[in-house]
């Protein structure tokens, strides 16, 4: 009953409908502010590291700042940056994996907001690192320098939006072209007939999870596809209108949108950990991927990559995510059923991943989604 009530209100908001003959609903809380305030109270800025989950939360927090102009959020970002980045742009990180590169997007934000050269220098260091970073034989940046020949769908989000944003910021057309080309390369290898993506690909076929013929991992894992979808719409935002790769990326978004609609759980509006096996024993709906799928769909409708027929899918997804968000009397928020950090494995491995509350994967993904929808879809 509670889910149906939430869905009715959210569906009306997304579709722009008036609930005729219905009693007035209380205004919902500003969930972005609530989650942001609860999280920063529990985690001082300097306590956050350079890892991708911390960076994801910071990027979500910046989106809240862009809407609210609450200086506390920008100060939090600046405090983190001052603690992590040296005046010469060094961070002590060798950047030997794509996950470690997501933080560079926060450096770009801080370079713009503060004018402090350390952040531009830090961004340049990561950009230049790519000149010697290993690739697959067809040019895809591998997930980790210790994982020769492997592409993981997760890696698209960790690197490609930065390349597009960096190229746009400094007028480097090669970087924007590279960002789009990487997405196409990954998609070519990882495309799954269900309308989604396999988690990973090993061109050497040496990993225990790799199919000996295709090199693909055995399953579709929900958050990996969420990372890829969000990366694609974010790269499109930074890609020039006349870029020759735009058509290919829009095609990827449309492919994923069809898959998201097909595999959405009708009972909850969310998506399953093993997305294309909804009836598998012990399967469960996961909150971070549901946030990322809904974010991607909303951005796609907003930008005109797909049509308004996806609005009901978005409304159900948003309501499903909100059903996993709560606030205690003291203002503390909780977002539940978030899969912890996850490598590549078989179906049982994904199903057995711990379900955390307030894991930063879910906090950051939620802020992306909530700012896209409740934040007027900037």
What is the percent of helical residues? 40-55%
Number of helices: 14
Count the E strands. Answer: 8
Order of helices and strands: HHHHHHEHHEHHEEHHEEEHEH
Task: Quote the average pLDDT.
Answer: 94
Explain what you see.
With 378 residues, this protein is mainly alpha-helical. It is built from 14 helices and 8 strands. The strands form 4 sheets. A two-stranded antiparallel ribbon has the order 1-2. Helix 2 (31-42) runs antiparallel to helix 14 (360-373), helix 3 packs parallel to helix 14 (360-373) and helix 11 runs antiparallel to helix 12.
Key words describing this protein structure:
single chain, 378 residues, mainly alpha, two-stranded antiparallel sheet, two-stranded antiparallel ribbon, 8 strands, 53% helix
What topology emerges from the helices and strands here?
Layout: H1 2-15, H2 31-42, H3 52-68, H4 71-84, H5 104-114, H6 117-129, E1 150-152, H7 154-170, H8 173-190, E2 200-202, H9 222-238, H10 246-263, E3 271-272, E4 285-286, H11 287-303, H12 311-322, E5 325-327, E6 333-335, E7 338-339, H13 347-351, E8 355-356, H14 360-373
Antiparallel strand pairs: 1-2, 3-4, 5-6, 7-8
Helix pairs in contact: 1-12, 2-14, 3-4, 3-5, 3-14, 4-5, 5-6, 7-8, 7-9, 8-9, 8-10, 9-10, 9-11, 10-11, 11-12, 11-14
Summarize, please.
This protein is mainly alpha-helical and 378 residues long. It is built from 14 helices and eight strands. The strands form four sheets. Strands 1-2 form a two-stranded antiparallel ribbon. A two-stranded antiparallel sheet has the order 3-4. Strands 5-6 form a two-stranded antiparallel sheet.
